[in-house]
Amino acid sequence: MGFKANIRGLIKGILYYGTKHTSDIDEQDKIKVVNFIIAPSLPILLVLIILNITNARYLLAGTNTVVFIVGTLTILINPFKKYDTLKLVLNIILSITCTVQAISYHNGSEYFNIQNLVVIMIFFNDRKFLIPSIGTSVICFVFAKYWVITHPPIIEQVSTGRVAFNMTWFLAMMVFGLLYFKRNQRRIKKSLEEKNDQLSAANNTKEKIFTIVAHDLRSPIAQLKGGLDLVNKQYISAEEFKGMSGGFYKQIDELQANLDTLLNWSQSQLGGITTKPKICSIKALTEEAVSLIQQVAHEKEITIERQLAPMMIYADPDQIRIVIRNLIFNAIKFSNRKSSIYLLSTLENGLASVTIQDEGVGIEETTLAKLLTNEPIISSRGTEKEKGTGLGLKLCKEFIHINQGTIDVQSEIGKGTRFTISLPLAK
User: Fold this and answer.
1) Pairing between β-strand 351-358 and β-strand 406-412 as defined by DSSP bridges
2) Domain 273-424 falls in which CATH fold?
3) Among 314, 316, 321, which residue's Cα sits nearest to residue 290?
4) For residue range 133-160, what is the model confidence (pLDDT) as tens digits?
C-alpha cells in the first residue's frame, strides 16, 4: 500500500510540477497537459537509449538522448514565460531530431512533429514564437514524410514492431493528452458556471439591500420625523404625541435590528468574513443576546424560558452573539402574543448545542427547504406585521460555518420552529 501511494505521489508530483508558479487556472491546466504529454515518454526514452546502444544503433541512441534532454528541459522551464526563447529553440531542436530519426531509420518519428505542434500551441501565445515553431514542425513533418515515402532509410530500416510501438505511443499520448485537456475544460466551464451563479446571487442580494434601504429603513424614520414635525408645529399636543410614541418605539426597535443585520451582512460581503475565535461561555453569550432583545419580547408579552448549561466553546463571541440574537429575534417575530420561547443548551457528540424553540406560526416545507441555502432572500412579516431584511439567517449560516459549527432547522405549521446551532467545545 505504501509503495502504491509513493508511486501515485511521484506521478502527481510530476504532473503538477510548475503549477504553483502561477495562480491562473488556465495556465495551470496548460502546464499539466504539457507535463502529461511529455513526462510518460521520458522513462521509455531511457529504455530505448539502452536498447539502441546494445544493438549498436549509436545515432538513434544519440538522437533519443537529445529528445530525452529536450523533454526534461521543457518540463522544467514550462511554467516560466521568461524562457519563451529557450522553448522556441528546444522545439526547433526536437523537430529536427525527430526528422533525422525518421529519414535515417524509417521508425515513424516524423509523427512526433504533430505531437510537438500540440505542445507548441499550448506553449505560446506570442506570434513571434508561435509562427516559427509551427513553421518548423510542419516543414520537418512534410519533409520527413516525403523522404520516407520516396527514399530508403539512410542508415537502416528498424523492425516493424519498433515502428508500430512508436505509432501506438504517439497516438496514445495524443488521445490521452487531448482527453485530459477536454476534462480540464469541462472543469473550468463548471467553475465559471458556479461563479456566475454566485455573482447572480450577489446581485440579487445587492438589489434586496437597496430595496430595504430605500423603503424599510427610510419609512420608520420618515414617520418619526413626521410625528416630531407635528409636535414642533403644535398641530398635536405633547399628550397626543406620547400616545403615538409606543408605535414609534416599536418601529425604532425594528429599524435598529434591521440596520444591525444590514451592517453585519454588508461587512461580511465587502470585506470577507474573518473570525477571531477564543474560549467563551455559550451560556453567557446566550444571556447577553437575551438581554439585548428582552424589551422586544416584553412588547409582545412573550416569555423566554432558559435552561442553559455552563459550557465553554471555542468560537468568535461577537459572531455567535449575533447569531443567537438573530434567531431569538426571529422566534419573537413569528410567535403569537403571550406565547413562550425556550432556550436549551446541551452537549451532543462533543459539540455544544443551543436550541431556540418557539410556539409560533411555523414555516412551510417549500420555504424550509430553501431557508439555509443560497436561494434568493425571502422576508416574511411577523405575526404583528414586523418587518425583516431576509438577511439574518444567511448571516447566521455564514457565521456558524466559519466557526466550524452547524445550524439545523425543524418546523411544523401552527406549532412552531426549532433552530439548533452546534459549536466545537473549547479544548
Assistant:
1) unpaired
2) Heat Shock Protein 90 (3.30.565)
3) 321
4) 888 889 999 999 999 899 999 988 888 8
